[in-house]
């Protein structure tokens, strides 16, 4: 029986039928090769299909593939911001893992807005990704937590995989920085250097990462008789660090402390600028610390004392787990940090006064 050559698509883009005709195989065989079917295709036919696809410049329709297989070769990553080096480092690790697993990464920006996060998850579910990773601090008293969990559980019930790169919620798995113990270690180190009265410049109190780091720092300082004397909150970014520190300076409260502990390195950079703008020298007139050890922490002057976390490794590990269907995703994995002492927090000399 003579085989009829399928007609090319009217859009001019080659179709799966075009590839099958060029390779001289059935449509089903071409589909199995190009959509990574578990059904085996002989090496000769596979080579013919791959060659035909290359010659025709054929591209797989991810939407059609998602319908056929139940999911697309996509991993969705939700981040709070794209200009924060913390999230870009995590995204780098996620992208490396995704590439190794043969999937692509799509990123949604939540801006630390719980409603926007929920809307993003709902939209992403419709795209049928293989997995969803959610980074960014969880929010205490979040009114959307219940709905978010419903969406994520429905996603996993349909064969999807989901994991937090922040605090675990509702028994779902997580890979995250050990914020509390890292901050406690920083407090102990600062106390051993002779500092006793800290001002904490950090993000909003309802962010769980803020609460974890502040409480950990409090415990660490207490081991040497120190304490947190002041807490000033603002947005969890460079501008927030600048504004919060300016308020401490303008109110005169900066005079009450000997060390300023920022909630993250991005805030610490803003805080250092605010100090300099007021003629106060970071590391000399008042010590300063950060958190996370982003790349610029070692480039600022003075170099920033901070807590180092392997952020790219956290992203990579989380993606590896999410893309491995044989691994249960219920464990809450806390990745330890390391205190990095630098010039912004030198040993306290006798002439320093609180």
Set down the secondary structure blueprint.
Blueprint: H1 16-23, H2 27-34, H3 43-56, H4 62-69, E1 74-79, H5 85-100, E2 104-109, H6 114-126, E3 131-134, H7 145-157, E4 161-164, E5 174-177, H8 179-192, E6 197-202, H9 208-222, E7 227-233, H10 238-251, E8 259-262, H11 265-277, E9 287-289, E10 306-308, H12 311-322, E11 332-335, E12 338-340
Parallel strand pairs: 1-2, 1-3, 3-4, 5-11, 6-7, 6-8, 8-9
Antiparallel strand pairs: 10-12
Helix pairs in contact: 1-2, 1-3, 2-3, 5-12, 6-7, 8-9, 10-11
Q: What count of structural domains? A: 2
Q: Kindly provide the radius of gyration, computed on alpha-carbon positions and rounded to a whole number of angstroms.
A: 26 Å
Number of helical elements? 12
Shape verdict: elongated
Number of DSSP-assigned strands: 12
Determine the CATH topology of the largest domain. Answer: Rossmann fold
Widest sheet, order of strands = 2-1-3-4
Main sheet summary: 4 strands, parallel
- Low-confidence residue ranges: 1-11
Give average pLDDT, whole number.
Answer: 90
Order of helices and strands: HHHHEHEHEHEEHEHEHEHEEHEE
**What does the oligomeric state look like here?**
single chain
> How much helix is in the residues?
40-55%
What's the CATH first level of the largest domain? Alpha Beta
Q: Structural class of the secondary elements? A: alpha/beta
CATH architecture of the largest domain: 3-Layer(aba) Sandwich
Considering the protein shown, what is the CATH homologous superfamily of the largest domain?
Answer: Response regulator
Strand content: 15-25%
Taking the alpha carbons of the first and last residues, their distance comes to 94 Å
């Amino acid at each position: 029986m003579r085989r009829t050559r399928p007609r090319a698509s009217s859009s001019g883009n080659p179709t799966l039928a075009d590839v099958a005709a060029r390779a001289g195989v059935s449509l089903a065989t071409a589909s199995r090769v190009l959509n990574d079917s578990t059904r085996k295709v002989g090496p000769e036919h596979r080579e013919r299909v791959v060659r035909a696809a290359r010659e025709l410049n054929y591209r797989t329709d991810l939407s059609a593939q998602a319908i056929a297989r139940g999911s697309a070769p996509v991993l969705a990553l939700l981040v709070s911001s794209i200009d924060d080096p913390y999230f870009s480092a995590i995204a780098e690790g996620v992208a490396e893992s995704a590439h190794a697993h043969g999937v692509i990464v799509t990123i949604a920006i939540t801006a630390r807005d719980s409603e926007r996060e929920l809307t993003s998850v709902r939209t992403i579910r419709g795209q049928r990704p293989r997995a969803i990773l959610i980074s960014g601090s969880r929010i205490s008293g979040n009114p959307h937590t219940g709905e978010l969990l419903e969406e994520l559980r429905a996603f996993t019930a349909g064969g999807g995989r989901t994991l937090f790169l922040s605090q675990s919620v509702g028994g779902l798995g997580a890979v995250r920085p050990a914020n509390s113990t890292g901050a406690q270690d920083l407090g102990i180190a600062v106390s051993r250097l002779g500092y006793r009265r800290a001002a904490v410049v950090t993000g909003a109190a309802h962010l769980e990462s803020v609460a974890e780091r502040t409480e950990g720092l409090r415990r660490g300082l207490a081991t040497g008789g120190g304490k947190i004397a002041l807490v000033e909150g603002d947005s969890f970014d460079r501008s927030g660090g600048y504004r919060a520190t300016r308020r401490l300076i303008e109110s005169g409260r900066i005079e009450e402390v000997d060390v300023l502990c920022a909630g993250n390195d991005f805030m610490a950079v803003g805080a250092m600028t605010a100090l300099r703008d007021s003629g106060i020298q970071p590391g000399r007139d008042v010590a300063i610390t950060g958190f996370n050890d982003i790349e610029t922490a070692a480039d600022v002057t003075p170099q920033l004392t901070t807590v180092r976390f392997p952020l790219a490794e956290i992203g990579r590990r989380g993606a590896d787990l999410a893309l491995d269907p044989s691994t249960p995703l219920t464990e809450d994995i806390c990745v330890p940090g390391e205190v990095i002492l630098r010039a912004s927090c030198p040993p306290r000399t006798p002439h320093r006064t609180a």
